[in-house]
Structures are given as structure tokens and as C-alpha cells.
From TrEMBL:
SUPFAM superfamilies: NAD(P)-binding Rossmann-fold domains
Domain Ketoreductase as annotated: residue spans: 3-178
Name of protein: Beta-ketoacyl-ACP reductase
PROSITE patterns assigned to the protein according to its UniProt record, in alphabetical order: ADH_SHORT
Keywords: Oxidoreductase
Pfam families: adh_short_C2
CDD domains named among the record's database cross-references: BKR_SDR_c
InterPro entries documented for this protein: Acetoacetyl-CoA_reductase (IPR011283), KR_dom (IPR057326), NAD(P)-bd_dom_sf (IPR036291), Sc_DH/Rdtase_CS (IPR020904), SDR (IPR050259), SDR_fam (IPR002347)
């Protein structure tokens, strides 16, 4: 049976690597994105993976978007909540808008998306919800009170929902990447990046494909006993 996977923020960075890995593993894959049409159409041209534009921060747009994906590819069996943004600032300078945008995308977006696929997964007695949280949701990071709060919220959501989904064959897990070489991290000034790498015992940034392999593992039928868990993929930077 060919399963269908939907990856939010699947047109670039970690999400793109996840979408490609799922496709290579035989899934039907849809990739969502927010607004960068050029990156999305390049990704579509390179991979053949269909791309769908909507914001995960908008509940009604998520409902319409998932309905379209399911009409095109069939019911979503695997949802990867990967879309995320940063709006970094020290707290005394953080604006309500910076706070809200990050919570809306990185936490409310996970509710908005998971809510669309949950009933179908319960009815079909199978589902995989995999949310990309962050090392900074585990340990907290100065300059990221908004981001750390949202990503920590994703972990609480995962643990609670895992209990609700267990009897229906739905597993709900989170992955906490450390620092991965994507646009998000490459936008950090080089000096800061060097100081980050110095804190990673493995001695380098992670690659998007290393997160994708963890997603493949949690998505598989064989991972049915793993639920409510947080998988750290961080080069040893933070050991829980
Ligand atoms: P990128 O900035 O490289 O890519 C972000 C992707 O998310 C893009 O496809 C973007 O679409 C999409 N996106 C952003 N906002 C929305 C939205 N509101 N609705 C739908 N799609 C949206 O990010 P990364 O690949 O670096 O990060 C992916 C995830 O991993 C995020 O959740 C991030 O917090 C998390 N993470 C990343 C780490 C890292 O080191 N890179 C470390 C720990 C966690 P568009 O192109 O249209 O803007």
C-alpha cells in the first residue's frame, strides 16, 4: 500500500530533504510552503513533488489546503509539521508582533494542521504525526523567547496527543534538531555560526538529510510502539 505524506514547509531546507526522502522511500508526497513561489517551483521542477501554497498559521487555509492535497493524492497518512520561522530579539526588545508571528506559525500551525488530518487517521486506524521542534525548545535560547516557547509547546502537544492517538494506531512524535545547515542557520552571522559549531561535540552543523532519516524511521509502520517521544538529532550538543 502506498502511503501519502504531507510535509509543511516542504519546499526548502529540512522540509525539502524530508519530502525527497519520503518520496524516495515510496510515499506519495505533497509539500506545502508559505510564499516563496520561486523556491517552491524550483523544488517542484527538480523533484516532481507537488507543492501547495498556504500558511499553516491560518486555520481555514489549512482546511482548504489539506482538502486539496487529499483530493489529489488521497488521505494523509503521515503529517510532518516542519514549517517554522524565527523572529529573534532579546526579550526587552521583542515586539508583540514578533511574539505572535512565531507562536502562530510554530505552535498554532501545528494545531491547525494536525486538526485537519486527525479524524481521518482515527477512522482509518493509522497515522503518523511528526513535528519538527528544536533543541532550543528543549534548553531555551536567549534571543528566542518566542521560538523556545513555541517549540517547547510542540513537545507538550506531542506528549498529550500521543496518549489520545495510541488506541487508534496513530503515533505522535517530535524531533528536536540541533543546528542544521539551512537558510535559517546560514542567515546567522559567520562569527556566531563558528561559536555555535564550537559547542557541537560532533564538530559540525547537521545536514537536512540527517533529520529526514529520523523522520523516515518514525513514519514507518515498524515504529508503531514509539509514541510521545522526543528524538534529539543534535550532534551531542544537548543531552536530555
Ligand atoms: P527554512 O527557513 O530553510 O525553510 C522554512 C520552510 O517553512 C519554507 O518552506 C517556508 O516556506 C516554510 N514556512 C515558513 N512559514 C510558513 C507558514 N506560515 N506556512 C507554511 N510554510 C511556512 O527552515 P529550516 O529548514 O531551517 O527549518 C525547518 C524546521 O526545522 C522549522 O520548524 C525550524 O524551526 C526547525 N529547526 C531548524 C533548525 C535549523 O538549524 N535549521 C534547528 C532546529 C529546528 P517559504 O519558502 O514559502 O517561505
Amino acid at each position: 500500500m502506498t502511503r501519502t505524506a504531507l510535509v509543511t514547509g516542504g519546499s526548502r531546507g529540512i522540509g525539502a530533504a524530508i519530502a525527497v526522502a519520503l518520496k524516495n522511500a515510496g510515499y506519495k508526497v505533497a509539500a506545502n510552503y508559505a510564499g516563496n513561489d520561486e523556491a517552491a517551483s524550483n523544488f517542484n521542477a527538480e523533484t516532481g513533488i507537488p507543492v501547495y501554497r498556504w500558511s499553516v498559521a491560518d486555520y481555514d487555509a489549512c482546511a482548504a489546503g489539506v482538502a486539496q492535497v487529499e483530493a489529489d493524492l488521497g488521505p494523509v497518512d503521515v503529517l510532518v509539521n516542519n514549517a517554522g520561522i524565527t523572529r529573534d530579539a532579546m526579550f526587552h526588545k521583542m515586539t508583540p508582533q514578533q511574539w505572535r508571528e512565531v507562536i502562530d506559525t510554530n505552535l498554532n500551525g501545528v494545531f491547525n494542521m494536525t486538526h485537519q488530518v486527525w479524524t481521518g487517521m482515527r477512522d482509518r486506524k493509522f497515522g503518523r504525526i511528526i513535528t519538527i521542534s528544536s533543541i532550543n525548545g528543549q534548553k531555551g535560547q536567549m534571543g528566542q523567547a518566542n521560538y523556545s516557547a513555541a517549540k517547547a509547546g510542540d513537545l507538550g502537544f506531542t506528549k498529550a496527543l500521543a496518549q489520545e492517538g495510541a488506541r487508534a494506531g496513530i503515533t505522535v512524535n517530535a524531533i528536536c534538531p540541533g543546528y542544521i545547515a539551512t537558510d535559517m542557520v546560514m542567515a546567522v552571522p559567520e562569527k556566531v555560526r563558528e561559536s555555535i559549531v564550537a559547542q557541537i561535540p560532533v564538530g559540525r552543523l547537521g545536514e537536512p538529510e540527517e533529520i529526514a532519516r529520523a523522520v523516515l524511521f518514525l513514519a514507518s509502520d515498524e515504529s508503531g510502539f514509539i509514541t510521545g517521544s522526543t528524538l534529539s538529532v543534535n550532534g551531542g550538543q544537548f543531552v536530555v
